[in-house]
Task: structure prediction
Amino acid sequence: MLSRDIQALAFADFDIDGAVRDTCASMQGHTRSTFLRRTVAAGVTALGGVAVWPSAASAAEARSDVAILNFALALEYLQASFYTEAERIGALHGALKQQADVVGAHERAHVKAFRELLGSKAIKEPRFNFHGVTESPDTFRSTAVAFEDLAVAAYKGQAPLIKSRSYLAGAIAIHSVEARHAAWIRRLAGFLPAPKAFDEPLDAHRVVEIVNSTHFVTLRDPQTSSRTRPRFTG
Amino acid sequence: MRHRRHRREAGVVRGAVALDKLAVLVTGFAVTFAAVALLSPRLLASGSVVRHQLAAATSFSGTPPAQLPSALDIQRVVPLSDPTGATRWAPVLRATTARSRPTVRSATVGPLPARTPDGTTNIVVADGEATARGTQWVHVRLALLPNDTQGWVPRNALGGWSFVETRLVISRARLTATLFRAGHVIFRAPVGVGARGTPTPAGTFYVRDRLTGFTNPMYGPLAFGTNARSPTLTDWPGGGVVGIHGTDQPNLIPGRISHGCVRLTNTSIVRLGKLMPIGTPVVIQ
Result:
C-alpha cells in the first residue's frame, strides 16, 4: 500500500461541487480502466531506484519513492493529455482558453520533469478517451475542476510518504502550482477558489478509484497495422 | 467549418471575484500552505509560532535562505508547437451511420464500419463538433463514393483523439509526394499515379492503416491504406481502396501507370513509413 494512513473519504467528501459526479453521469458503456491501479502496483514492485537516489538510502525506500513518482506521473499524463486535447480541438474561448493554454503548458512541463527524473523507470503514457468532455466549454470546465482538486488532494496524500528530500522539494513545488490551477478553474466555474481552511489528502487507492470511475484511460490501442495482404487497386 | 456551442463566460461564472482579488486569494492560499507545510504538528499547536512563520513568509526582503534543491527540473513550460495545425483522428469503436446533420432524424449519408476492408480498426478524421439535444456529434470524412463525402456521427461511437502534425501532398502534375511536418518539408520522392483510364482521385483524404509483412511484391514491402476510393474500379475487392505503397516495377516511376494507387520505389516507401503516422491527411492535387 502506498499510503499508510488511508482516509475513509466518501466520494462526496472529495467531489465537493459534484463536478466528477456530473461528468461520470454523462458517460456510460465504456470498459473500466485499470491503468492507474496497474501503475501503482508496477511502481511498488519496481526494482532499484532512479539514478539520483542517494547511495545511503535503502532499496526499499528507493522503490517506494519510484512508485510515488510514477503515480504522480500517471496523474500528470492524464492532466496534460486533457488540456492538450482541449487546446488542439479549439472549442474553448476567452478566459477558459487562457486557463487551458497556461495550465496545459504547466502539466506538460510536469510530465517532462518526471520522465527525465525517472528515466527508464518511467511508466509509458497510456491512451486516453475523454469521451467528448474536451469538446465543449461546459464539460471541459467541470472536468478541469475535478482534475485539479483531485491532483491537489493526491499530491497532499503522497508528499508525507516521500523519503528523498529533493523529491519532496520537487513534489511540493508542483503541489502548490496544482493548487493555483484548482483555484483558477474553480473561480471560472463559479465555485469558491478556496472553500475550506484546511485541505484533506487523498490516498493513492482512492485516487485510482476516482480516476477509473471516469473511464478516461483506455488500455487498448486501435489496431491500425496489420500483416494482411493489401487489396488496394495497385 | 467548425460547429460549436459558444457560451459567454459571464453567464457561467457565478459570484466570481475580480481577477486581482483572485490573485490575492491564490497567493494567500499558497503562502498559507507553504507555512503550514513547514511546521510540525507540535509547532502548529503554538499560535504564536504560526503567526511568526506567516509574518516571515510574507515580509521577507533579505537574502533568501539556502533552498532545498529539487530533483525535478520544473522551470520550463512546454507550449504546443502549433495548437491549430494538427489533425485529429479517432478509432471507430462501433459501427454507426453517418448523417447529413447532427441529429438522428436527418438523412443518412452512409455507413461507418468499425473495420476497414483490410480488417484493421477503422478511423475517422474530424473537423468539427456539435451538440444537439444533449448528444455530441462529430463531423468526419468518410470512405465513401463520391470521394470527399462527409457526415455527422455520434461522438460515443468513436474512441479517444490522436493528433498528427504531418500532411502528405501528392502532385499528379509533378508526379511527386511531399510530406510536411509542422509546415516543413521532411520527405519528397517521385511517384507513379493512376493511368488515364484508372485515375488517382483528387481530394483531401487521410491514411487509415499500415500493412507490412505480406508477400505480394506488387505492393513492395509496405502499403498505407487511405479512405480514398477509385471512381472507376468500384468492383475491385475491398471496394477499390486507393493505397500508397511500394512496387516491383521501379523503372515505371515517375509516371502515370497505376490503377489509382500512389506507387513509390521501395526505398522511398520504407523511408516514408518511418515518417508518416496513421491519421496523416493526404492531399491529392
